[in-house]
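Notebook entry, structure prediction.
Reason for the run: the old model in the group folder had no record of what sequence produced it. Starting over properly, with the input documented here first.
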Amino acid sequence: MKPEFSVGAVGQVHIGVKDIGRAVAFYRDVLGLPLLFEVPEQGMAFFDCGGVRLYLSADQSDEFPSNPLIYYRVTDIDEAYRAISAHGVEFRREPHVVHRTADYELWMAGFFDPEGNFIHLMSEVSPV
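New structure, fully documented this time:
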Protein backbone atom coordinates (compact mmCIF):
# COMPACT_ATOMS: atom_id res chain seq x y z
CA MET A 1 0.00 0.00 0.00
CA LYS A 2 1.41 3.36 -1.03
CA PRO A 3 1.23 6.06 1.68
CA GLU A 4 -0.58 9.26 0.75
CA PHE A 5 2.42 11.28 1.93
CA SER A 6 6.18 10.83 2.00
CA VAL A 7 9.10 13.08 2.91
CA GLY A 8 11.62 14.34 0.36
CA ALA A 9 15.41 14.34 0.36
CA VAL A 10 17.45 15.30 3.41
CA GLY A 11 17.68 19.08 3.39
CA GLN A 12 19.82 19.93 6.41
CA VAL A 13 22.02 18.23 9.02
CA HIS A 14 22.77 19.85 12.41
CA ILE A 15 26.00 19.54 14.37
CA GLY A 16 26.33 21.11 17.81
CA VAL A 17 29.75 22.65 18.52
CA LYS A 18 31.47 24.18 21.55
CA ASP A 19 33.34 26.94 19.68
CA ILE A 20 31.44 28.29 16.67
CA GLY A 21 34.38 30.40 15.40
CA ARG A 22 36.73 27.44 15.43
CA ALA A 23 34.10 25.23 13.78
CA VAL A 24 33.34 27.79 11.03
CA ALA A 25 37.05 28.11 10.26
CA PHE A 26 37.43 24.32 10.08
CA TYR A 27 34.44 23.64 7.83
CA ARG A 28 35.20 26.64 5.59
CA ASP A 29 39.00 26.64 5.50
CA VAL A 30 39.92 23.00 6.10
CA LEU A 31 37.04 21.13 4.49
CA GLY A 32 36.42 23.81 1.87
CA LEU A 33 32.64 23.94 2.31
CA PRO A 34 31.02 27.13 0.99
CA LEU A 35 29.65 29.27 3.83
CA LEU A 36 26.05 30.17 3.00
CA PHE A 37 25.32 32.53 5.90
CA GLU A 38 25.91 33.09 9.60
CA VAL A 39 23.63 34.26 12.40
CA PRO A 40 26.34 35.41 14.87
CA GLU A 41 23.95 36.64 17.57
CA GLN A 42 22.54 33.11 17.78
CA GLY A 43 25.85 31.26 17.31
CA MET A 44 24.81 29.64 14.03
CA ALA A 45 26.50 29.07 10.66
CA PHE A 46 25.22 27.31 7.54
CA PHE A 47 27.27 25.65 4.79
CA ASP A 48 26.50 23.99 1.48
CA CYS A 49 27.48 20.32 1.63
CA GLY A 50 26.84 19.07 -1.89
CA GLY A 51 23.28 20.36 -1.95
CA VAL A 52 22.55 19.42 1.67
CA ARG A 53 22.77 22.30 4.12
CA LEU A 54 25.10 21.77 7.09
CA TYR A 55 23.97 23.73 10.17
CA LEU A 56 26.47 24.36 12.97
CA SER A 57 25.35 25.81 16.29
CA ALA A 58 27.23 26.69 19.45
CA ASP A 59 25.18 24.57 21.83
CA GLN A 60 27.31 21.50 22.50
CA SER A 61 28.44 20.87 26.08
CA ASP A 62 29.30 17.90 28.25
CA GLU A 63 25.66 17.89 29.35
CA PHE A 64 24.40 18.28 25.76
CA PRO A 65 26.65 16.24 23.46
CA SER A 66 26.34 16.72 19.73
CA ASN A 67 23.63 14.57 18.23
CA PRO A 68 23.15 15.40 14.55
CA LEU A 69 19.59 16.27 13.57
CA ILE A 70 18.02 15.38 10.24
CA TYR A 71 15.95 17.96 8.36
CA TYR A 72 13.72 16.59 5.59
CA ARG A 73 12.67 18.84 2.73
CA VAL A 74 8.95 19.01 2.02
CA THR A 75 7.14 20.97 -0.67
CA ASP A 76 4.24 22.10 1.54
CA ILE A 77 5.07 22.17 5.26
CA ASP A 78 1.45 22.70 6.32
CA GLU A 79 0.31 19.67 4.30
CA ALA A 80 3.17 17.59 5.75
CA TYR A 81 2.28 18.75 9.27
CA ARG A 82 -1.36 17.69 8.81
CA ALA A 83 -0.45 14.34 7.21
CA ILE A 84 2.05 13.37 9.91
CA SER A 85 -0.17 14.66 12.75
CA ALA A 86 -2.97 12.47 11.38
CA HIS A 87 -0.84 9.47 12.39
CA GLY A 88 -0.88 10.58 16.03
CA VAL A 89 2.52 12.27 15.95
CA GLU A 90 2.70 15.23 18.33
CA PHE A 91 4.81 18.08 17.01
CA ARG A 92 7.06 19.84 19.51
CA ARG A 93 7.59 22.68 17.05
CA GLU A 94 4.69 23.55 14.78
CA PRO A 95 5.42 25.08 11.35
CA HIS A 96 7.08 28.48 11.76
CA VAL A 97 9.41 30.85 9.87
CA VAL A 98 13.02 30.67 11.04
CA HIS A 99 14.72 32.85 8.41
CA ARG A 100 13.75 35.29 5.66
CA THR A 101 15.66 36.35 2.57
CA ALA A 102 14.58 38.37 -0.45
CA ASP A 103 13.99 35.09 -2.32
CA TYR A 104 12.33 32.81 0.25
CA GLU A 105 11.14 32.16 3.78
CA LEU A 106 12.60 29.13 5.55
CA TRP A 107 9.87 27.27 7.45
CA MET A 108 10.47 24.43 9.91
CA ALA A 109 8.54 22.08 12.17
CA GLY A 110 9.79 19.31 14.45
CA PHE A 111 8.77 16.11 16.23
CA PHE A 112 10.32 13.04 17.87
CA ASP A 113 10.46 9.72 16.06
CA PRO A 114 9.56 6.57 18.02
CA GLU A 115 13.22 6.09 19.00
CA GLY A 116 13.46 9.54 20.58
CA ASN A 117 15.32 11.21 17.69
CA PHE A 118 14.20 14.77 16.97
CA ILE A 119 13.23 15.11 13.30
CA HIS A 120 12.67 18.37 11.43
CA LEU A 121 10.69 19.19 8.33
CA MET A 122 11.83 22.17 6.29
CA SER A 123 10.38 24.12 3.39
CA GLU A 124 11.59 27.14 1.44
CA VAL A 125 8.53 29.20 0.56
CA SER A 126 8.36 32.17 -1.81
CA PRO A 127 7.59 35.32 0.19
CA VAL A 128 4.13 36.75 -0.30
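Summary: The helical segments are 20-30, 77-85.
The old model has been moved to the deprecated folder.
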